[in-house]
Specification:
Number of strands: 4
Strand content: 5-15%
Low-confidence stretches: none
Structural class: alpha+beta
Largest sheet: 4 strands, mixed
């Protein structure tokens, strides 16, 4: 039973590390988002009581939208997000900032380690 637990732990830790590396690589392929995204993010973050600077990046993938990080949090926007109407920009940004405010990235990693 001990060997089975150890093997499963190694598999799950490896999967977690692979996911972290994939996120780091994705982040490196992104470019800084347009100034309008930066301004909106700063305004919303301030209103939500978030004092950390939030990095706002844009991906070339139209399906990627993710909040990441704990020490240096950020948001990756999908390709095409510049075409969204203002209300959608605000809703999506508020949602992603809520993940950052709650430190969901750290909670998710901790949950995976506990599992």
């Amino acid at each position: 039973v001990g060997w089975m637990w150890l093997a499963a732990s190694v598999v799950l830790l490896t999967a977690l590390l692979v996911d972290i590396v994939r996120l780091i690589r994705l982040r490196r392929r992104c470019v800084p988002a347009a100034a309008v995204w930066r301004e909106l993010t700063d305004t919303l973050a301030s209103g939500m009581g978030i004092t950390r600077r939030i990095q706002v990046l844009q991906s070339t993938d139209p399906a990627i939208l993710v909040a990441f990080g704990t020490l240096r949090p950020g948001i990756i926007l999908p390709d095409g997000a510049d075409d969204w109407p203002d209300d959608r920009r605000r809703i999506v940004r508020t949602h992603e900032l809520a993940h950052i405010k709650r430190n969901d990235a750290a909670v998710q990693v901790a949950a995976e380690l506990v599992r």
